[in-house]
Amino acid sequence: MAVTPQLIKELREMTSAGMMDCKKALEATNGNIDDAVVWLRENGLAKAAKKADRVAAEGVAFAKSNGKRGIIFEINSETDFVSKNEKFMTLVNEIGEALLESNAKTLEEALKVKLKSGETVEQACISATATIGEKIEVRRFDVVDGNTISFYNHANSRISVLLQFSGNIAEEDAYNLCMHVAAMAPKYLSKDDVPEDFKATEMHIIKETTDLTGKPEKVAEGILQGKLSKKLAEVTLLEQGFVMDEKVKVSEFVKQKGASLVTMYRFEVGEGIEKVVTDFAAEVAAQLKG
Protein backbone atom coordinates (compact mmCIF):
# COMPACT_ATOMS: atom_id res chain seq x y z
CA MET A 1 0.00 0.00 0.00
CA ALA A 2 1.27 3.45 -0.88
CA VAL A 3 2.27 5.75 1.98
CA THR A 4 0.09 8.81 1.53
CA PRO A 5 0.07 12.12 3.43
CA GLN A 6 -3.39 11.13 4.73
CA LEU A 7 -2.01 7.88 6.21
CA ILE A 8 0.86 9.77 7.83
CA LYS A 9 -1.60 12.28 9.29
CA GLU A 10 -3.84 9.49 10.62
CA LEU A 11 -0.92 7.68 12.28
CA ARG A 12 0.35 10.93 13.78
CA GLU A 13 -3.08 11.65 15.27
CA MET A 14 -3.29 8.11 16.68
CA THR A 15 0.16 8.08 18.29
CA SER A 16 1.37 11.71 18.50
CA ALA A 17 4.65 10.45 17.01
CA GLY A 18 6.74 12.79 14.87
CA MET A 19 5.85 13.21 11.20
CA MET A 20 9.08 11.65 9.92
CA ASP A 21 8.80 8.74 12.37
CA CYS A 22 5.26 8.07 11.14
CA LYS A 23 6.48 8.11 7.54
CA LYS A 24 9.29 5.65 8.35
CA ALA A 25 6.91 3.37 10.26
CA LEU A 26 4.44 3.20 7.38
CA GLU A 27 7.19 2.61 4.84
CA ALA A 28 8.56 -0.22 6.97
CA THR A 29 5.13 -1.86 7.26
CA ASN A 30 3.91 -1.36 3.68
CA GLY A 31 1.35 1.19 4.75
CA ASN A 32 -0.37 -1.05 7.33
CA ILE A 33 -1.35 1.42 10.05
CA ASP A 34 -1.82 -1.18 12.82
CA ASP A 35 1.61 -2.68 12.13
CA ALA A 36 3.03 0.84 11.99
CA VAL A 37 1.82 1.50 15.55
CA VAL A 38 3.64 -1.65 16.70
CA TRP A 39 6.75 -0.63 14.71
CA LEU A 40 6.79 2.77 16.42
CA ARG A 41 6.54 1.16 19.82
CA GLU A 42 9.24 -1.45 19.19
CA ASN A 43 11.68 0.99 17.61
CA GLY A 44 10.88 3.75 20.04
CA LEU A 45 11.78 1.85 23.19
CA ALA A 46 15.43 1.81 22.18
CA LYS A 47 15.32 5.56 21.67
CA ALA A 48 13.41 6.30 24.88
CA ALA A 49 16.51 5.96 27.04
CA LYS A 50 18.30 8.51 24.88
CA LYS A 51 15.57 11.04 25.63
CA ALA A 52 15.99 10.76 29.42
CA ASP A 53 18.14 13.89 29.64
CA ARG A 54 15.95 16.02 27.38
CA VAL A 55 13.93 18.86 28.90
CA ALA A 56 10.19 18.22 29.19
CA ALA A 57 8.65 21.52 30.30
CA GLU A 58 5.19 21.31 28.73
CA GLY A 59 2.41 19.01 29.83
CA VAL A 60 -0.50 18.85 32.23
CA ALA A 61 -1.20 19.49 35.90
CA PHE A 62 -3.98 17.31 37.29
CA ALA A 63 -5.84 17.05 40.61
CA LYS A 64 -8.58 14.66 41.67
CA SER A 65 -10.37 13.54 44.84
CA ASN A 66 -12.79 10.82 45.90
CA GLY A 67 -13.75 12.60 49.12
CA LYS A 68 -11.38 10.66 51.35
CA ARG A 69 -8.18 11.11 49.38
CA GLY A 70 -6.92 13.81 47.07
CA ILE A 71 -4.03 13.64 44.60
CA ILE A 72 -2.24 16.20 42.47
CA PHE A 73 0.53 15.59 39.95
CA GLU A 74 2.34 17.09 36.98
CA ILE A 75 3.11 15.03 33.89
CA ASN A 76 5.40 16.57 31.31
CA SER A 77 5.99 16.37 27.59
CA GLU A 78 8.45 18.29 25.43
CA THR A 79 5.91 20.18 23.31
CA ASP A 80 2.50 21.72 23.78
CA PHE A 81 1.23 19.75 20.77
CA VAL A 82 1.64 16.43 22.57
CA SER A 83 0.17 17.71 25.85
CA LYS A 84 -3.08 18.56 24.02
CA ASN A 85 -3.29 15.19 22.27
CA GLU A 86 -6.20 12.89 23.17
CA LYS A 87 -3.88 9.91 23.66
CA PHE A 88 -1.75 11.88 26.13
CA MET A 89 -4.84 13.04 28.05
CA THR A 90 -6.12 9.46 28.21
CA LEU A 91 -2.81 8.49 29.86
CA VAL A 92 -3.16 11.40 32.30
CA ASN A 93 -6.63 10.25 33.34
CA GLU A 94 -5.55 6.62 33.68
CA ILE A 95 -2.65 7.66 35.92
CA GLY A 96 -4.95 9.91 37.94
CA GLU A 97 -7.43 7.08 38.59
CA ALA A 98 -4.68 4.65 39.56
CA LEU A 99 -2.96 7.09 41.93
CA LEU A 100 -6.26 8.00 43.59
CA GLU A 101 -6.98 4.36 44.36
CA SER A 102 -3.42 3.64 45.51
CA ASN A 103 -1.67 4.10 48.83
CA ALA A 104 1.23 6.02 47.27
CA LYS A 105 2.57 8.87 49.42
CA THR A 106 5.69 9.87 47.50
CA LEU A 107 6.67 10.31 43.86
CA GLU A 108 8.84 7.20 44.07
CA GLU A 109 5.86 5.17 45.26
CA ALA A 110 3.57 6.77 42.68
CA LEU A 111 5.81 5.68 39.80
CA LYS A 112 5.45 2.04 40.95
CA VAL A 113 1.63 2.13 41.01
CA LYS A 114 0.09 -0.21 38.41
CA LEU A 115 -2.43 0.93 35.81
CA LYS A 116 -5.28 -1.26 34.54
CA SER A 117 -3.03 -2.22 31.62
CA GLY A 118 -0.65 -3.92 34.07
CA GLU A 119 2.12 -1.40 33.44
CA THR A 120 3.41 0.76 36.27
CA VAL A 121 3.09 4.53 35.94
CA GLU A 122 6.81 4.69 35.14
CA GLN A 123 6.56 1.95 32.49
CA ALA A 124 3.54 3.63 30.91
CA CYS A 125 5.50 6.88 30.59
CA ILE A 126 8.42 5.03 28.98
CA SER A 127 6.03 3.35 26.55
CA ALA A 128 4.47 6.72 25.73
CA THR A 129 7.95 8.17 25.18
CA ALA A 130 8.73 5.33 22.81
CA THR A 131 5.53 5.70 20.80
CA ILE A 132 5.17 9.48 20.78
CA GLY A 133 8.85 10.28 20.30
CA GLU A 134 8.99 12.83 23.11
CA LYS A 135 10.12 12.50 26.69
CA ILE A 136 7.06 11.84 28.89
CA GLU A 137 7.46 11.78 32.65
CA VAL A 138 5.58 12.35 35.90
CA ARG A 139 7.60 15.14 37.49
CA ARG A 140 5.96 15.55 40.90
CA PHE A 141 3.14 14.15 43.01
CA ASP A 142 1.46 15.03 46.29
CA VAL A 143 -1.43 13.60 48.24
CA VAL A 144 -3.76 14.40 51.15
CA ASP A 145 -5.81 11.88 53.10
CA GLY A 146 -8.84 12.64 55.23
CA ASN A 147 -12.08 14.60 55.02
CA THR A 148 -12.98 17.95 53.46
CA ILE A 149 -10.85 17.96 50.33
CA SER A 150 -11.40 20.28 47.38
CA PHE A 151 -9.61 20.53 44.04
CA TYR A 152 -9.61 22.61 40.87
CA ASN A 153 -8.21 22.02 37.37
CA HIS A 154 -7.95 25.09 35.18
CA ALA A 155 -9.42 24.87 31.69
CA ASN A 156 -5.98 25.06 30.07
CA SER A 157 -4.83 21.98 32.07
CA ARG A 158 -1.71 23.87 33.15
CA ILE A 159 -2.75 24.83 36.70
CA SER A 160 -4.20 22.56 39.38
CA VAL A 161 -4.98 23.15 43.05
CA LEU A 162 -5.59 20.75 45.93
CA LEU A 163 -6.79 22.02 49.32
CA GLN A 164 -7.60 20.25 52.58
CA PHE A 165 -9.64 21.79 55.39
CA SER A 166 -10.53 20.92 58.94
CA GLY A 167 -14.13 21.65 59.87
CA ASN A 168 -17.20 21.57 57.63
CA ILE A 169 -16.88 24.12 54.87
CA ALA A 170 -19.47 24.20 52.08
CA GLU A 171 -18.36 22.58 48.82
CA GLU A 172 -18.93 25.80 46.87
CA ASP A 173 -16.87 27.89 49.32
CA ALA A 174 -14.02 25.36 49.23
CA TYR A 175 -14.08 25.32 45.42
CA ASN A 176 -14.02 29.13 45.29
CA LEU A 177 -10.93 29.09 47.49
CA CYS A 178 -9.30 26.64 45.08
CA MET A 179 -10.01 29.07 42.25
CA HIS A 180 -8.53 31.89 44.34
CA VAL A 181 -5.30 29.89 44.76
CA ALA A 182 -5.18 29.20 41.02
CA ALA A 183 -5.61 32.90 40.20
CA MET A 184 -3.50 34.53 42.92
CA ALA A 185 -0.66 31.97 43.01
CA PRO A 186 0.33 32.14 46.70
CA LYS A 187 3.68 30.49 47.41
CA TYR A 188 2.93 29.59 51.02
CA LEU A 189 -0.10 28.72 53.13
CA SER A 190 0.75 30.88 56.15
CA LYS A 191 3.47 33.26 57.31
CA ASP A 192 4.88 30.46 59.46
CA ASP A 193 5.63 28.51 56.28
CA VAL A 194 7.76 31.26 54.71
CA PRO A 195 11.47 30.26 54.80
CA GLU A 196 13.87 32.58 56.58
CA ASP A 197 16.06 32.88 53.49
CA PHE A 198 13.06 34.17 51.52
CA LYS A 199 12.42 36.82 54.18
CA ALA A 200 16.11 37.78 54.23
CA THR A 201 16.23 38.13 50.44
CA GLU A 202 13.09 40.27 50.37
CA MET A 203 14.36 42.48 53.20
CA HIS A 204 17.63 42.99 51.32
CA ILE A 205 15.70 44.09 48.21
CA ILE A 206 13.49 46.40 50.28
CA LYS A 207 16.51 48.05 51.92
CA GLU A 208 18.18 48.57 48.55
CA THR A 209 15.10 50.17 47.01
CA THR A 210 13.78 52.26 49.92
CA ASP A 211 14.97 55.81 50.61
CA LEU A 212 15.25 56.20 54.39
CA THR A 213 17.36 59.37 54.32
CA GLY A 214 16.80 61.44 57.44
CA LYS A 215 14.46 58.91 59.04
CA PRO A 216 15.03 58.07 62.74
CA GLU A 217 16.17 54.48 63.31
CA LYS A 218 12.87 53.36 64.84
CA VAL A 219 10.82 54.95 62.06
CA ALA A 220 13.09 53.45 59.39
CA GLU A 221 12.80 49.99 60.95
CA GLY A 222 9.02 50.35 61.06
CA ILE A 223 8.91 51.26 57.37
CA LEU A 224 11.08 48.28 56.43
CA GLN A 225 9.05 45.84 58.52
CA GLY A 226 5.82 47.24 57.10
CA LYS A 227 7.02 46.68 53.53
CA LEU A 228 8.18 43.17 54.40
CA SER A 229 4.79 42.35 55.94
CA LYS A 230 3.07 43.60 52.80
CA LYS A 231 5.29 41.42 50.62
CA LEU A 232 4.66 38.34 52.79
CA ALA A 233 0.92 39.00 52.61
CA GLU A 234 1.14 38.93 48.81
CA VAL A 235 2.71 35.46 48.73
CA THR A 236 0.86 33.91 51.68
CA LEU A 237 -2.60 32.46 51.07
CA LEU A 238 -4.11 33.16 54.48
CA GLU A 239 -2.95 36.80 54.37
CA GLN A 240 -4.23 37.53 50.86
CA GLY A 241 -7.45 39.43 50.29
CA PHE A 242 -10.09 36.93 49.13
CA VAL A 243 -10.49 37.41 45.38
CA MET A 244 -14.31 37.45 45.65
CA ASP A 245 -14.24 40.08 48.43
CA GLU A 246 -10.84 41.75 48.78
CA LYS A 247 -11.87 43.50 52.01
CA VAL A 248 -11.80 40.09 53.72
CA LYS A 249 -8.60 38.08 54.19
CA VAL A 250 -8.68 34.43 53.17
CA SER A 251 -8.03 33.47 56.81
CA GLU A 252 -11.07 35.52 57.90
CA PHE A 253 -13.26 34.03 55.18
CA VAL A 254 -12.35 30.46 56.14
CA LYS A 255 -12.93 31.22 59.84
CA GLN A 256 -16.35 32.70 59.07
CA LYS A 257 -17.23 29.39 57.40
CA GLY A 258 -16.31 27.45 60.55
CA ALA A 259 -13.22 25.81 59.11
CA SER A 260 -9.46 26.16 58.82
CA LEU A 261 -7.06 25.47 55.97
CA VAL A 262 -4.67 22.59 56.62
CA THR A 263 -2.87 21.93 53.33
CA MET A 264 -2.37 23.77 50.05
CA TYR A 265 -0.85 22.50 46.82
CA ARG A 266 -0.73 24.54 43.62
CA PHE A 267 0.98 23.02 40.58
CA GLU A 268 1.66 25.02 37.43
CA VAL A 269 3.18 23.22 34.46
CA GLY A 270 6.86 23.90 33.95
CA GLU A 271 7.43 26.11 36.99
CA GLY A 272 11.03 25.85 38.10
CA ILE A 273 12.16 24.12 34.90
CA GLU A 274 14.79 25.87 32.81
CA LYS A 275 13.36 25.72 29.31
CA VAL A 276 15.46 25.35 26.19
CA VAL A 277 14.63 27.72 23.35
CA THR A 278 14.34 25.71 20.15
CA ASP A 279 14.88 26.97 16.61
CA PHE A 280 11.82 25.26 15.13
CA ALA A 281 12.76 25.98 11.52
CA ALA A 282 16.21 24.47 12.02
CA GLU A 283 14.69 21.43 13.75
CA VAL A 284 12.30 20.76 10.86
CA ALA A 285 15.10 21.20 8.34
CA ALA A 286 17.24 18.69 10.26
CA GLN A 287 14.36 16.18 10.29
CA LEU A 288 13.83 16.53 6.54
CA LYS A 289 17.54 15.93 5.90
CA GLY A 290 17.34 12.82 8.07
Automatic annotation (TrEMBL):
GO-annotated cellular components: cytoplasm
Primary subcellular site in the record, as a coarse category: cytoplasm
Pfam families in the record: EF_TS
Domain Translation elongation factor EFTs/EF1B dimerisation: 70-271
A GO molecular-function annotation: translation elongation factor activity
InterPro entries cross-referenced by the UniProt entry: EF-Ts_dimer_sf, Transl_elong_EFTs/EF1B, Transl_elong_EFTs/EF1B_dimer, Transl_elong_Ts_CS, UBA-like_sf
UniProt-annotated stretches for the region Involved in Mg(2+) ion dislocation from EF-Tu: 79-82
Tree of life domain: Bacteria
Localization per record: Cytoplasm
Keywords noted in UniProt: Cytoplasm, Elongation factor, Protein biosynthesis
NCBIfam families hit by this protein: tsf
Function: Associates with the EF-Tu.GDP complex and induces the exchange of GDP to GTP. It remains bound to the aminoacyl-tRNA.EF-Tu.GTP complex up to the GTP hydrolysis stage on the ribosome.
HAMAP family the record matches: EF_Ts (MF_00050)
Stated family: Belongs to the EF-Ts family.
Protein name stated in the entry: Elongation factor Ts
Organism name: Spiroplasma clarkii
Lineage summary: Bacteria, Bacillati, Mycoplasmatota, Mollicutes, Entomoplasmatales
Name of the gene this protein is made from: tsf
